[in-house]
């Protein structure tokens, strides 16, 4: 009998299991598995920023039971792969109101013996609009992590910086971590990771703040990137990468550096920044192509960033995720 051919997966996955199993640090489980012809049409015809609002109808029409079913499906998909801890954003806003989070809390309780789940509140409507702010404040009390999308308030009101302050203040008030979507659009005119670090230091939140995506970092010059990595270390800001979610960024005719539309993990890790892995949206209008497969995400990260450091890939998939979710302290050295 011939031996089974050896793959990289055979080399890495056992180490991931040994290090406590996969950790999926970023998702939107409340909107997962909502694909339909109509939803795919939204995907084809609207920009991301338009989709923030086009999703309203789907959210408004979702009952607590719809949300509960999606959470359960998501948790089961994770458990089936050996995911032992995960974080998911949950829409708590004028459209979803508290139906999604109520369903999430019930589903979490149901699966508590199989997977640790942390919730963050999604702020698709920002924190400046008074109605959205009221839901943000309500959500902040219930969730484990304060979630953020400062770009929304920058786009609508030119008040992104104020949004960062509101989010940091709220996190301090409740003693919770911050997870903020930053630098998503792969352009060199975004500086949100830098702003996140400055605000972290200003509010004394070092070691408790996480940036989600950081795609645009790679669009900046090497000098800027080096300065930013130093600042990230000083602020102890961690970064979550969700490779499939942004690899489909549209081609642009802007002349710039040659790079993939990905978080530059190959530079962040050597610079001493903690990086963790997430699926982000799974089978929905935002990211129909992501099926929530953790191995696929790690493989895309490794190939897209040409990052062959197996020990660190294992950490990214496991202990770093636990740090990002606040399950182990930022300063605790990885056991793996
Ligand atoms: Zn997200």
UniProtKB/TrEMBL annotation:
<dbReference type="InterPro" id="IPR006680">
    <property type="entry name" value="Amidohydro-rel"/>
</dbReference>
<feature type="domain" description="Amidohydrolase-related">
    <location>
        <begin position="21"/>
        <end position="327"/>
    </location>
</feature>
<protein>
    <submittedName>
        <fullName>Amidohydrolase family protein</fullName>
    </submittedName>
</protein>
<dbReference type="Pfam" id="PF01979">
    <property type="entry name" value="Amidohydro_1"/>
</dbReference>
<dbReference type="InterPro" id="IPR052349">
    <property type="entry name" value="Metallo-hydrolase_Enzymes"/>
</dbReference>
<dbReference type="InterPro" id="IPR032466">
    <property type="entry name" value="Metal_Hydrolase"/>
</dbReference>
């Amino acid at each position: 009998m011939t031996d089974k051919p050896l793959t990289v997966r055979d080399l890495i996955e056992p180490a991931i299991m040994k290090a406590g199993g996969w950790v999926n640090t970023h998702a939107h489980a409340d909107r997962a598995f909502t694909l339909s012809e109509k939803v795919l049409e939204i995907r084809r015809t609207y920009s991301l920023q338009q989709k923030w609002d086009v999703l309203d109808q789907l959210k408004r029409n979702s009952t607590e039971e719809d949300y509960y079913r999606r959470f359960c499906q998501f948790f089961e998909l994770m458990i089936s792969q050996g995911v032992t801890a995960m974080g998911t954003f949950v829409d708590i806003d004028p459209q979803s109101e508290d139906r999604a989070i109520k369903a999430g809390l019930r589903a979490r309780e149901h699966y508590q013996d199989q997977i640790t789940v942390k919730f963050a509140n999604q702020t698709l409507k920002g924190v400046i609009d008074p109605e959205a702010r009221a839901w943000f404040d309500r959500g902040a009390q219930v969730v484990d992590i304060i979630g953020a999308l400062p770009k929304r308030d920058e786009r609508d009101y030119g008040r992104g910086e104020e949004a960062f302050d509101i989010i940091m203040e709220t996190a301090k008030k409740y003693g919770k971590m911050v997870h903020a979507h930053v630098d998503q659009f792969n352009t060199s005119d975004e500086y949100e990771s830098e702003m996140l670090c400055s605000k972290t230091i200003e509010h004394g939140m070092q070691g408790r703040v996480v940036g989600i995506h950081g795609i645009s970092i790679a669009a900046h010059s090497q000098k800027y990137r080096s300065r930013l990595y130093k600042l990230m270390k000083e602020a102890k800001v961690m970064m979550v990468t969700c490779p499939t979610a942004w690899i489909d960024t549209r081609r642009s005719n802007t002349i710039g550096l040659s790079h993939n539309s990905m978080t530059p993990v190959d530079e962040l890790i050597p610079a001493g920044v903690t990086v963790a892995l997430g699926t982000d949206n799974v089978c929905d209008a935002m990211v129909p192509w992501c099926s929530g497969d953790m191995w696929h995400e790690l493989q895309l990260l490794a190939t897209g960033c040409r990052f062959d450091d197996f020990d660190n890939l294992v950490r990214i998939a496991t202990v770093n995720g636990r740090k990002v979710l606040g399950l182990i302290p930022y300063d605790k050295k990885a056991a793996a």
